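Collaborator request, handled under Task 6.
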Amino acid sequence: MDRVTTLAARLRRLTLKIVHVHHEATLPAVTTVALAAGGVAWTVGAGSLADLFWALGTVAAVVPAALWVFAALRRGDVRVDLVAVLALGGTLAVQEYLAGALIALMLATGRALESAAQRRASRDLRALLERAPRSARLRTATGVQVVPSAEVRVGDLLVVAPGEVVPVDGRVESASVALDESALTGEPLQTERSRGETVRSGVLNAGTAFELRATATERDSTYAGIVRLAQEAGAESAPVVRHDLQNVLDEVRDAADRVSDSPGPEALAAVEEAYKLLTERLLPHEDAEEHELYPALAPTLGGSEATATMSRAHTEIARLARRVATHLALARTAGGLAPDQLDDLRSCLYGLNTVLRLHFTQEEENYFSLASTPAEGGRPGS
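Structure tokens returned to the collaborator:
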């Protein structure tokens, strides 16, 4: 009996793996070919053959979609795939094969974009982890000793060499330092810090070696907090639909208002919720658009200039989101929002709200109305 159960489990895992590879690698191609072949057949007057191609494209999508729904139901996660399965089945039942083929293509490309976004998010998280400093130069009575970053304690005097990433949060003990904070803030310009000023972990020493007095351990430092936020955001996935994106916009505005009105624990909780929605729902959507959708649209729209404005908006959204992540990491370390954070955090949140609102409006105007109007002679499949 145990052998049968084990065999069944292996078969189930193999089936799910095949389905995953199928939908990611071949389903978009199959549905595209079926839709195009049906269009050609309809154009030359072979209506029955066109219906056959479109029906095959619909069936090709409904089988893996049903398995996705089954797997989601077992996890207690009912998503938009259930609606897609019902829609595909409905088109077959009423013999609206063109509609079924269109839904199949939308489902296939949507899943492919989601998978691409998840892969890129995983790569970004790996890059974030790989960039984390593993060691620190500890100044002792006998000289400088290289120790693991995890062994640094509050009050230790560290030496940060040129080109090294600051391992922990600290206070400058040298006359002045030049830092590259672009990894945390997205700002490309170098910043200067003088003796007694604070420096966050994760920034790059862009000048000469300097001494740093540790004010936090590695675990409690800014960069570690950003890594934890990224890991928490990647632990769950959420369906990307238009309603969800509007919810992100509302949460960002609510967080900005709370920080302005009463920057206490409730405001911090609102910022954390807004950032969670940003990383779970919005940023993967924007990333998929930037790296998958826009290159595909460029030939149709006459070149990459047609999507350049949207690409610039994506860059600004990502930059502001990184600054919010930095503020959250600082707040977690300090146990709350510090007064010197409020102005910049407000600016980030209201800036995000404005950019997102304009971005969504431009999407609606420029990219969600690309479908051509029906010809006077009727619509294929009608």
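The cover message to the collaborator said: "The beta strands are 135-140, 143-148, 157-160, 170-172, 176-180, 191-194, 198-199, 204-205, 210-214. Confidence is low (pLDDT under 50) at residues 14-22, 236-242, 367-382. Please let us know whether this matches your experimental observations."
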